[in-house]
Amino acid sequence: MRLTCYYCGAEISTEAGQIGTLIVCPGCGHRVRVPRPGLADASPPQADRRSSAVRKDAAAWEHLSNQEIRDTVLYEALPRAEKLRVNLKRAFAFVLPRYDDLTLFAFGIAFVLLVLLDPGLRGAMAAIGTDPHSETETLLLGFAGLGLTLSLIGVVWPREKSEFEKVMMLFFAILITIGAGVSTWRTPGAGALGWLAVFPIWNQFNAVLLLLLASTGILDTDCITDRRATARQIVVAVATIAVVTAVCRHFFRLHWAVTYSIAVNYTLSFLGRVQKFFDAPPASA
Predict the structure, then answer these.
(1) Largest interatomic CA distance in the chain
(2) What SS3 class is residue 76?
């Protein structure tokens, strides 16, 4: 049985056992419910009439969350306060981050490796956890640890995330980005990194940007998407982060925050190129 994704217009092949369940559209990454055969047979004429027009906007819909798409479709029915929020998010859409399963996993695995390899980082975290006067820091660290755990298991246990899970994962992503960005400011000798300085500088820019967006309410859980990671992407991500982290720590002797910035940014960029390579159509003979 085939159905048409109502987000991007892509045709999706389904099986009888998937009826009534949510599946991920391979075109845009959003979750759609597989209808009963009777409903599926009645919908194609309407879907066909709009699919060609909708596909033209697929690139724009691809990185939007389900909530953002609903806000766009139902915009006129929204209250004034919600319209203002949607308008602000649209105005700043070009700087809003998008965190899919693979991005959050890369954040998490890079930090775990650094904790294992850097005694100084382990000691700093232990000091926060054992200091009786740092209840707030300990609580923040606990929330970040929960978000880290959810980010790691999200790639091996794909499911529709609850709002609480999204909040914890977003909190972890923001905290680790801001923490690494702030730490690089205090890193001695950061100016001697040469071209490698672009990574911590980019992380510092992201840290300031996330603080501004989060403090104004523009950044929320809509930036957590349901795009799943493939097994190949997970393996490549782990291998790349492990190699880059080991080289930065043991060869260049870089600070953990600088190493984190380089490992995450390089890995996500590399994965994007690998994905484009595999998705490229074969050359005609």
Answers:
(1) 70
(2) helix
CA distance 114 to 118: 6
> Does residue 264 contact residue 104 with C-beta atoms inside 8 Å?
no
Identify which of 118, 106, 124, 144 has the alpha carbon closest to the alpha carbon of residue 256: 118
pTM of the model: 0.67
Q: Give the C-alpha separation, 245 to 115, whole Å.
A: 11
Q: Helices 256-279 and 198-215 meet at what angle, rounded to 10?
A: 90
Among the listed residues 244, 263, 147, 116, the one whose alpha carbon sits nearest the alpha carbon of residue 203: 263
Q: In whole angstroms, how far apart are CA 134 and each of 47, 127, 178?
A: 57, 9, 19
- What is the chain's alpha carbon radius of gyration, rounded to the nearest angstrom? 21
Spans of the chain below 50 pLDDT: 39-50, 283-285
The beta strand positions in the chain, using DSSP E, are 2-4, 11-13, 22-24, 31-33
Amino acid in the structure at residue 135: E
CA distances from 233 to 86, 150, 246, 271 (A): 33, 18, 20, 7
Contact 138, 128 (CB under 8 A): yes
Q: How far is the C-alpha of 170 from the C-alpha of 81, rounded, in Å? A: 23
Query: Across-strand partners of 24?
Result: 31
Q: Where are the beta strands (DSSP E) in 113-262?
A: none
Please name the amino acid found at residue 272.
G
In this predicted structure, what is the pLDDT of residue 281?
53
N- to C-terminal Cα distance for the chain? 33
